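USER:
Make up one protein:

ASSISTANT:
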Amino acid sequence: MLAECYRFRAFCLTVDDHAGRILAGLPVAEVHRRGRPRWVSLPFTDECPPLITPGADGEPTEWLDSLRRAFGVCRFEVRAALRGERVQRGDTYLNHRLPLDRAEDDVFAALHPNQVRRNIRRAQRAGVVVRVGSVEADLTEVFYRLHMRTRHRLGVPVQPLRYFRLLWRRFLEPGLGAVIIAELGGVPAAAGVFLAFGETCVYKYGASDERHLGARPNHLLFWESIRWAMARGCRTFDFGRTDLADTGLREFKSRWGTVEREFNYSVLADVPARAGMGAVPAPLRSAIRRGPIFVPRLLGELLYRHTA
């Protein structure tokens, strides 16, 4: 999907035994910055460690780096922690996961009493209604309008609309996730995109209309999304990646009874790795906030693929 949307060259690196059985593998996208090829596993993905057959010997670092050098790639970012002498430590993030292997009442009881449970009830009293999107327009129109509004407020570009069309067709429509929408008086107030596979549900994107935040639609949205994940058999609700500097988001996720952990990316390169390569510069953030609401979308159409 990423290759189709952003015109990346995508492939898998594998280690096979003499019988042709795959012992280890890693999906990779080749992206270009200033004309030089870089490998990323995977762009716009929170984590993507190598998959290794149980019992396989050794760390994958040596074969990954040897392939990088053989193909003339200047930088290879693996979005997971690797070990080895040639590994450089990349950016560090936080992750928050909520265990769902218990009764719904026990999950609810673990939420912060004042900052979460009270706000869920406040949203219910205000008349907030949560529904699961059933058609593509729920993602590409309802969610996307809220997403543009939120990204304008934050001062960051918006993914191209074609990305969300592909997300619906490749993931949500086949049942690998959902767009869940909170409405107040029939008007969309908040929405989120959640991906689910196996026993894990991952919160991927969230958006809201700041004019309705007083009714706490986000709290009811997350609680109903957790209930949706439990109903489909998920045992973990992953709140996604958080920047270390984003203390407000970290505190919000911590109030949901989550387990916090720190993780970092790994870089294989011939030169020292630089941190924060995908961050939006402060002057551009300020310009986006001050500009018209269509600016984040325009910049996303032109530049988003180059932030991989």
